[in-house]
Amino acid sequence: MSLVECVPNFSEGRRPEVLEQILGSIRAVKGVKLIDHSMDASHNRAVVTFVGSPTACSDAAFRSIAKAKELIDLTKHTGEHPRVGATDVVPFVPLEGSSMEECVKTAHALGERVGRELEIPVYFYESAAKSPARKNLPDVRNIGFEKLRDAVATDPTRAPDCGPKQLHPTAGATVIGARFFLVAYNVNLESTDLALAKEIAKKIREKDGGLPGIKAMGFMLDDLKCAQVSMNVCNYTATGLERVYAEIEGLAKAKGVSIRESELVGLAPRAALPPGTAQKIRLRGFDPKKQLIEELL
User: Is 37 considered catalytic here?
Assistant: First the structure.
């Protein structure tokens, strides 16, 4: 049996009752195991992880997108994290017995169904991208819901890959793809200097000449009263968490700023966190039994 992982991100990080209804739609699908979920109030975003067969995961993803469409209104949504949809991004990741090709087929089939049945436009990214310009997720959603809503009508380069040719009024668009295991990793600075967090993010991200496989942005976290370097570690075999932590630590220290802590959002494979790594990178609240995917499977 082939197993895939699905990690949908929803634009809701402040209403647990809404997320619980979305989780319920996933739990209702036979053959799917929900293994993790988290909410972030500053980003106003939830990250959910489940595993199962490609068919079962596709069905669970579809039901969760439908539920999010019903419950989340982007015209009333604010948060630090860029987003274009109530269900913002839905990646499929090959696990045991699966392949990237199978995940690409699953992503394309789900996208067609979402566009057809839910009337939500879909963009494909990473390995499922239908054009090189859409391989990189930030390039797809970089202008956000409000600007994309206007751009779709006039800019042919912003036309969705499938579904309606305009954004859904309240659910926006959904970005669906297939990719390697991504580790969502944040480093919190002992500072409220947002400009410094953005400067560090620019220096470490791959597209600006930084570290291989690193996508990064700088945010201000009002609830924690600190600036954050928020990252997607897209290939931990190319750039590990220790390496990126050390790079941020050095750049911050050069400005007289120390690191408060780092955090893992969702799950990581065991290979990304060898013994002793959590202590070295000051990983807050790390629980291997709950955050290493092998422990949960």
Answer: no
